Amino acid sequence: MALFAPSISLRISSSTSPQRRRFVQSRHTFTPRAAVAVETPSSSGSDRGGAPKLLLEVKELSAVIAESKQPILKGVNLTVHEGEVHAVMGKNGSGKSTFAKVLVGHPDYEVTGGSITYKGQDLLEMEPEERAVAGLFMSFQTPVAIPGVSNIDFLNMAYNARRRKLGLPELGPIEFYGYVAPKLELVNMKIDFLNRKVNEGFSGGERKRNEILQLAVLGADCAILDEIDSGLDVDALRDVAKAVSGLLTSTNSVLMITHYLRLLEFIKPTYIHIMENGKIVTTGDISIAETLEREGYKAISGI
Ligand SMILES: Nc1ncnc2c1ncn2[C@@H]1O[C@H](COP(=O)(O)OP(=O)(O)OP(=O)(O)O)[C@@H](O)[C@H]1O
């Protein structure tokens, strides 16, 4: 089974990834706080004082499909500060998911130009696992099933993998149960959900809730959420959006891909970006999404 799940620190044969460049950073530059930021009580921006810190800076990023060399991203620019919520919208096939996957180092894509700076480091020099340890999390548009592995074992393993990398002691099954059980409430899921096999037989909505549970368990400084609203009923959408909002602090950020205004009404974005043909062509506030909803993409200037 082809599985790419950097945010959960599974084994990935990224050494063959064309996107991989020489890794030069020290692991010690990843502080424990970095990966558990969403678990710690937030200090408000005003508590910290000063301007919000730069978290992610994408400059003129271009990428091709590794196998076919087909260009998909053609000069993406995006700047994300701590405490900001960015939404990326755009027509089907405009490159939104590709952009998200390139950020987490998906081996299907090869970066051909531009730069990505994350917390002051060159993200493109980092392995997918290292990106995850540095607090980059991605929920996938179509989360994969892992037959035969229970949800709780999977989460425990992923959580411990991160703790190991951070030099923290692992949590045993009982301790981990105590840690994860309260987080189920956040996504409004029953406890027996933990004993089910990862995403096996899950409904679309359950898969999405499960992704947010992973986010709540693992923590993130920058959570990339690819269409977490797709396939959700109104109650599930509210639950998932509430859970994501509850994880937001003034020191982390969310980059979410969505087609619909309804999600943005729950998780208020700082900026909305419109992607077209592999580029961000327009940036604005929630009014962009409102215009889109009313009039479609033809109404957005720049497209
Ligand atoms: N691994 C791949 N192999 C072949 N084509 C790909 C691959 N990844 C992306 N593409 C193509 O690149 C283009 C952009 O795809 P992408 O999934 O990034 O679009 P999107 O904006 O997220 O679309 P949607 O709104 O439909 O989810 C599409 O034409 C898609 O078919």
UniProtKB/TrEMBL annotation:
Keywords, comma-separated and alphabetical: ATP-binding, Hydrolase, Nucleotide-binding
Family annotation (Gene3D superfamilies): P-loop containing nucleotide triphosphate hydrolases
Keyword Nucleotide-binding included in the entry's annotation: yes
InterPro entries (UniProt xref): AAA+_ATPase, ABC_transporter-like_ATP-bd, ABC_transporter-like_CS, FeS-cluster_ATPase_SufC, P-loop_NTPase
UniProt xrefs under Pfam families: ABC_tran
Keyword Hydrolase on entry: yes
Domain ABC transporter as annotated: residue spans: 56-302
Domain of life: Eukaryota
EC numbers: 3.6.3.23
Listed GO MF terms: ATP binding; ATP hydrolysis activity
Name of the featured protein: Putative ABC-type transport, ATPase component/CCR4 associated factor
Organism: Handroanthus impetiginosus
